[in-house]
Specification:
CATH superfamily: NADP-dependent oxidoreductase domain
CATH class: Alpha Beta
Radius of gyration: 19 Å
Oligomer: single chain
Pfam families: Aldo_ket_red (PF00248)
Strand order of the largest sheet: 3-4-5-6-7-8-9-10
GO molecular function: oxidoreductase activity
Structural class: alpha/beta
Shape: globular
Number of domains: 1
Order of helices and strands: EEEHEHEHEHEHEHEHHEHH
Keywords: NADP
Helix content: 25-40%
Largest sheet: 8 strands, parallel, barrel
InterPro entries: AKR (IPR020471), AKR1C (IPR044482), Aldo/ket_reductase_CS (IPR018170), NAD(P)_OxRdtase_dom_sf (IPR036812), NADP_OxRdtase_dom (IPR023210)
Strand content: 5-15%
Protein name: Prostaglandin-E(2) 9-reductase-like isoform X1
Number of strands: 10
Length: about 325
C-alpha cells in the first residue's frame, strides 16, 4: 500500500481522517507548555491529526499551538484534524453538548473534527474528574450509553463536530450502539490501546466488518506512568524481533511499530514531546514492511494490556473483562 504523508482514510460518514496522528497526553509532572511546543513541532513536521482530550487538561495549550500555525500560514483550519473526548463525568445526555462546548472554548475553535466517548464507564457528574467516595473508590453513575450516543448525534447535527466515535469500547458495547433503535450515525471509530504486544486482531476484524476505523493509542507501548502502568511490564520498543526488522530497514523500532499499524489499516497515534522523535515518528511513509515482517510482528502478540484501569473493575461497563 503506497501512502503519502498526507494520506487520509475515509470514515463511514464520508469524512476523512489522517492515518497518523500526534497524541497529546502527558503525565501531570510535565508542564502544559510542553504540549503546546510538541503540537507546533508536529504541525511543522507534517502531522495534520492532533489527538486531545478534556481529561489531559492541556486543551488550551494545544489549541494555542494549532491557532499559531494557522496564523503563520503553515496550515489552514481545514488541514487540521482535531479529536476531542467526552469525559466519563459527562455521560448524562444533557451534559454532552456543554462538555463539547467547553472543549471548543478551551481550544478557541468553532468546531472539532472528531468527538469520541473517552470510555464506556460513567462517573458521577461534578467538578472532580475522578469523584472518590470515603473508601477512595470512584463513584459511578447510571447512564445508558445509547442515550449518551443520541446526544453525540445532536452535536454533529448542530455542526459543533464533523464526526463522532467511541474509545475503549469492547465488541459488546459497540454492538449495543450499532443495534440501537433509531440509530442516526454509526461510530466512525473505536480508539483503543493497540501495539505489537496487544494487536487487537479480533476487535480490528469486527470493526472492519462494520466499517468502523480502529485508532491505536499507546502504539509504541506506553508512557509507563506508575499510577497506571505495571513498572515490570516489558517494553515493546525493546523487543528483539522489532529491533531486527528495524535494523533490516535502517529504521527505528518506533517507526516499524507505526508502519505496522498503518499497513493493517489502523489509524495510529504516536505520542512524543521530543522534537527528534516527533520528526522520526513522521518518517514512516517512504518504506514498506514485507509480508514476512508483518507476520513476524503479528507473532509478538501477548494480549498484554498496559492500561488495564484495574481500579475501576467494579464499575458498570468496565470494558476489559470481555475477550475483545
Amino acid at each position: 500500500m503506497a501512502l503519502s504523508s498526507s494520506h487520509r482514510v475515509t470514515m463511514n460518514d464520508g469524512n476523512t481522517i489522517p492515518v497518523l496522528g500526534l497524541g497529546t497526553y502527558a503525565p501531570r509532572s510535565v508542564p502544559k507548555s510542553e504540549g503546546e511546543m510538541a503540537t507546533k513541532v508536529a504541525i511543522e513536521v507534517g502531522f495534520r491529526h492532533i489527538d486531545g482530550a478534556f481529561l489531559y487538561e492541556n486543551e488550551k495549550e494545544v489549541g494555542q499551538a494549532i491557532r499559531a500555525k494557522i496564523a503563520d500560514g503553515t496550515v489552514t483550519r481545514k488541514d487540521i484534524f482535531y479529536t476531542g473526548k467526552l469525559w466519563n463525568t459527562y455521560h448524562r445526555p444533557e451534559l454532552v453538548r456543554p462538555a463539547l462546548e467547553e472543549t471548543l472554548k478551551n481550544l478557541q475553535l468553532d468546531y472539532i473534527d472528531l468527538y469520541i466517548i473517552h470510555c464506556p464507564m460513567s462517573f458521577k457528574p461534578g467538578k472532580d474528574m475522578f469523584p472518590f467516595d470515603e473508601n477512595q473508590k470512584v463513584i459511578s453513575d447510571s447512564v445508558d450509553l445509547r442515550d449518551t450516543w443520541e446526544a453525540m448525534e445532536k452535536c454533529k447535527d448542530a455542526g459543533l463536530v464533523k464526526s463522532i466515535g467511541v474509545s475503549n469500547f469492547n465488541r459488546r458495547q459497540l454492538e449495543m450502539i450499532l443495534n440501537k433503535r433509531g440509530l442516526k450515525y454509526k461510530p466512525v471509530c473505536n480508539q483503543v490501546e493497540c501495539h505489537p504486544y496487544l494487536n487487537q486482531s479480533k476487535l480490528l476484524e469486527f470493526c472492519k466488518s462494520n466499517d468502523i476505523i480502529l485508532v491505536a493509542y499507546s502504539a509504541l507501548g506506553t508512557h509507563r506512568e506508575a499510577a497506571w502502568v505495571d513498572q515490570n511490564s516489558p517494553l515493546v520498543l525493546e523487543d528483539p524481533v522489532l529491533g531486527a526488522i528495524a535494523k533490516k530497514h535502517n529504521r527505528t523500532p518506533a517507526q516499524v511499530a507505526i508502519r505496522y499499524q498503518i499497513q493493517r489499516g489502523v489509524v495510529v497515534l504516536a505520542k512524543s514531546f521530543t522534537e527528534k522523535r516527533i520528526k522520526e515518528n513522521f518518517q514512516v511513509f517512504d518504506f514498506q514492511l514485507t509480508p514476512e515482517d508483518m507476520k513476524a510482528i503479528d507473532g509478538l502478540n501477548k494480549n498484554l494490556r498496559y492500561l488495564t484501569f484495574n481500579q475501576f473493575q467494579d464499575i458498570p461497563n468496565y470494558p476489559f473483562n470481555d475477550e475483545y
